[in-house]
Structures are given as structure tokens and as C-alpha cells.
Amino acid sequence: MSMRRLSPVLVMVAGLIGLWYLAAVPMNVHEVLTAAERGGAEVSPPSAMERRDMGNWALVLRNPEHLGASWSSQRPRLPAPHVVLVELYESTIDEELNGRRGLVRSGSLSNRSLVYHGLVTLNATFVGFLIGAGLGILLAVGIVHSRVMDMSVMPWAIVSQTIPIVALAPMIIVVLYSIGVQGLLPKAVISAYLSFFPVVVGMVKGLRSPDGMQLDLMRTYNADAATVLWKLRLPASVPYLFASLKIAIAASLVGAIVGELPVQQGGLGARMLAGSYYGQTAQIWAALLVAAALAAVLVWAIGAAERRALRRMGMMA
Amino acid sequence: MTARPVIQASQLDLTFVTADGPVHALQDVSLDVPPGAFVSFIGPSGCGKTTLLRCIAALETPTGGKLSVNGMTADEARRARAYGYVFQAAGLYPWRTIGRNVALPLEIMGYSKRDQAERVARVLELVELAGFEQKYPWQLSGGMQQRASIARALAFDADILLMDEPFGALDEIVRDRLNEELLRLWARTQKTICFVTHSIPEAVYLSTHIVVMSPRPGRITDVIESPLPAERPLDIRDTPEFIEIAHRVREGLRAGYEE
Ligand SMILES: Nc1ncnc2c1ncn2[C@@H]1O[C@H](COP(=O)(O)OP(=O)(O)OP(=O)(O)O)[C@@H](O)[C@H]1O
Ligand SMILES: [Mg+2]
Fold this sequence. Notes:
By secondary structure, chain A is mainly α.
């Protein structure tokens, strides 16, 4: 990326970080004042009962001298960015290099590190993405070739996406558990459930993208449906496929994380929920950052594959 | 016209059913095309030239009348791959090189790899595109793309060539060259050619038969058999015979308008 494209991004990021630091002051003011009071300082109003009913901003205005601790509070509601970065470092590099269970000392990834949990999530994401994308492509081919499928599958596919996944995920996990399926597969199923839909929609559009003349040409050759699919519809749908794969891989990641929430068996979702049980907000944010970075890398990877494929097909200079 | 006609239409009728009522595109079209003829269809926009060509190709089904191609129904002829069709736009597949675009019908029709390579090389030579086999369509000019699409229609052994305004989008000079090439190609291959055009000089220069059509509903108003010799240099367009035929075509077109 050139400097000229990079600098607006940097300005944006700097602005957001500034806002974040600012927001930490009112968000953490209750905890900060409680800690200060415990340390023997004078806060106003002095009683915790009274403070509880007061607005955050009012407390901020009445206790300016104590606010320095807002960014280093022990149990912050909103941890400051550097606190999250420290947590991120400690739960990845530091844990693996120096931790008792880390890679260096034990020879395997520590189950307390985000590297390990990120890989668990990534695994489920990949399996779910492959199932979802494969299913999506098959359904799209069916929909384009069969009127019955067009009329019957599409409405159900749309309905399936209107059910909130957070409500559905525990049910899927319980149902699959009751028939003895657990571990990776239930998460992959939820992940596939979220990712097949954009692929169906994109591929149906792509497979129907050849114009009348391109289809008529095939008719003049008396080509059968399989030939038309293979030599015309599929190649024409490639740009549409990649556009929907980018959405699908991000949806797969979300699906995998949601699938990890109900069962504490590792993964970024499990870390987030554990963090919220124990009030470890920095841990939640660190897991969130790893998830965001994973999403960015996955979408970028699909984009790279897209550029390669289109260049090989001669559709990009 | 002594030999059995390659294309035989009698009292063809076609009405499109559309949302805002029926469109009568062809009415009472009767026509015999003898083998080896070069037939041009000329007429004002919307008079049904494309529709007639598409009927012959079995891409459209007439609502009345009889149509036979190579002694079969039009659809049987299509299944037998009796014709090559050149659309108004080149319509090359952008993900295929020029060579692979030309090979497309050959792949579908199951020609052997060696035969495919030979034929692609031969027809690209014929349309003066040798050396462009590895290029993608967007790397070629519009005229070159159109020639590639003609090569694609020539690659397999169909003895009928249906062409719908193949040179419509090209400038005069390129058009002249392609017209000359097309005549030479027709002489060499002995194909029967149906050719739709808007240009009177083009129709007169190329054809053995000129079919003049009138609009709403599309009918044939005149069929002119050209007395011009088979050997036609470009400057034949300045001879009195040529000008006389062109005049007759123009009269026919005007008559169609005034009705
Ligand atoms: N698929 C269709 N559905 C409905 N009407 C159609 C259809 N195809 C053509 N028509 C109508 O039939 C008439 C003849 O159309 P056609 O395309 O054959 O004209 P044309 O002579 O080829 O015109 P041009 O010289 O502009 O290409 C027109 O009025 C057109 O609107
Ligand atoms: Mg037309």
C-alpha cells in the first residue's frame, strides 16, 4: 500500500484510539472511585450507595483528581487500548515463549493462549466454510436447472436466514450432542449454516449471468445442459462466486465463534464468554481483536485467490 | 433455381406474445434459397430480418407456415448442426483465448484434439487472424473480434452460414475489406449464406439474391437475382449494372415504407 492510501487509514485509526481512551474515563469512573475510596482517598460523594445512582459524567466532573487511574483500573468496564494490547501480548507471544504450558517449555501450544484458541476457531471456520460453500454451489446449480428447486429451495433458504443464529446455535449443538456428535462438527454445521446462503445467492446470479446471445450460441451447437453448465455458466459465474465467498468466509468465522459460546471447549468464542463470566474485559477485547484480524486475513486470502483465478482466466490484465 | 432448395419457407408467420399485446413480426414469408446462394436480407429496422434468420436457425418457432432446412425441419437441422450462426455482436467468451473460442464448437461436437488444432489454425488463417490464437478477446479490436466470431462459425462442417449484420458496427474501410474476404471465403467453401444487412451497397456487392423486406408486419416485397458476375472486385460498385440494382433495391425499400 502506498503512503498516500495509508495515511487516511492511519488518521482514522488514531482518531478511534483517541475516542477509545476518552470513553474509558466515564465508563470506568465507578470502579476508579471505589478503588480510590478503598485506598483512603476522599471522593465525592463519599458513599458508594449515592454514587451508584449518579450519572457517569457527573461523577467525572466532581472527581477530576482521581481520573488518572481510568486507564489502569484493575477491573475496568472498558479497558484502555494499551491494556488490551498488553493482554494480547501476554496471551499470545508471552504465553507461548515463557508460559509453563507454552510452546517453548512444553512443546505444544498452551491452552491458555489465543494462538491455540484462534487455531481451534480457524479449524471450525474452514470446515464450515467448505461445507457451506460446497452446499451453496450445489443448491445454486439445482436452482438454475430445475424449476421445482427454484420454487421450493429459495424460499426456505431465505427463511433459514431470518432465524437469529444465537437462538439456533444452542439448539443445533444440543440436538447434535444427543445423537453423539460433538466437538468440531457442531461448530462447523453452524458455520456452514451461515455461509451457504451468500454463496447460493451469488452463484444463482452468476450462473444466470450469461446473456441471451451467449446461450443462443450454445443452442446453435445443440449443446446439452451439462455442456452449457460446464463451458458457459460456471466460467461466467466465477467473479460472482468470489464476491460471495468473501462474505461467506466472514460469516463462517462468526458461525464458528457463536458455536463456541455454549460449550466451553476452546476457541475464541469460549474465551470471550469466559472473559465475561469473570469480568475480564481485557480478555474479551483481546479475543475480539484476534477474531477481527482472522477475518481480515481470511477475506484478504479469498481476494488473492480471486485475483489469481481471474488472471489465469484472462479476465484481468 | 433448379437444384433442391437448401432453405424452403412457405407462408411463414410469426406473432410474438408480449405484455402489451401481440407483435406481428413476420407475415406470409415465402422464400427458396438454392444451394451455394448468397442471400442478403435488407429492410428497415424492426422489419423482422433477425426474426426470420432466427426461425431458420430454430432459435425462434414460427406460429404458422412451413419451413425446411436441408430437407428437414429447422429444429432437426439445428440438432444436426447444419449451420453456423454469426450474431450481430461478436459474443466471444471473455475467459477463452481467441483460439479456444474458435475451438468451442469443435470441443462440443467432439472433434479430436489434433483435428481441433488444425481447424482452428486453418480458419484463423482464413480470417487473417493467424498469430492471435493466444490473445484474449479484450486484446483485439472490434473488427478482429467479429472476424474471430466468423472463424468460430466456419470451424465446423456446416454448409449453411447465417449472419446477422456481422459488420454493422464497423467502419467503411474495414467493412470493405471484410466484404471482399467474405466473398473469397464463400467462393472457396461453396457454403450457402444468409446475410442480414442495412447497407444497400453491401447487399448488392455480396449477393446472388437480394431479399427486400418491409415492416409491420414483416413481409418480403421483392427478391432480386443479381446479374453481377461471381468474380467481384471492389470497384464493380462503380459500374452501371451495380448502380441499377442498388436503385431497384432502394425503390423496393421506399415502396415498403409508403404502403
Ligand atoms: N423476443 C421478442 N419478443 C417480442 N417481440 C419481438 C421479439 N423479437 C423481436 N420482436 C419484435 O419483432 C419485430 C422484428 O424484430 P427483428 O429483431 O426481427 O427486426 P430486425 O429487422 O432484425 O431489426 P434491426 O434491423 O433493427 O435489427 C420488432 O418489432 C421487434 O420488436
Ligand atoms: Mg436485427
